[in-house]
Design brief:
single chain; 130 residues; alpha+beta; OB fold (Dihydrolipoamide Acetyltransferase, E2P); 2 domains; 2 helices; signal; DNA-binding protein; DUF6152
Length: 130
Amino acid sequence: MKPEPIALRPLARRLMLMLALAALAAFALHQHANAHHGWSSYDSSKLVTLTGAVAESNYGNPHGTLTMTAEGKSWLVILAPPHRMDSRGLSPEMITPGKEVTVEGYVNRQDPQELRAERIMAGGKTVELR
């Protein structure tokens, strides 16, 4: 004869459910952080320099971006988070559409028109982004 399973008390059941949900949430956040900070998708063996006019800019979280025309094509440039750009002296006004900028960074291996900027020269100033 098999023994009857022991029923968990309601409080213990809730605690186990909360622990399982917390573990699942922690795993999901870890996966999201790895995907977002996966800089290995950029070719860091070759520093690229682009100079051109800003077509669009976004000074938002999780990081700023700008679209610029350089070398005869449109580029998506991934910048730093706004708090870092602010603290290092890059204001939103320095990268508005029409302004000329120079960026140095690394091209995305899967998207050859995307660049992760290491530094930007705008408004007569060089700003380190990483």
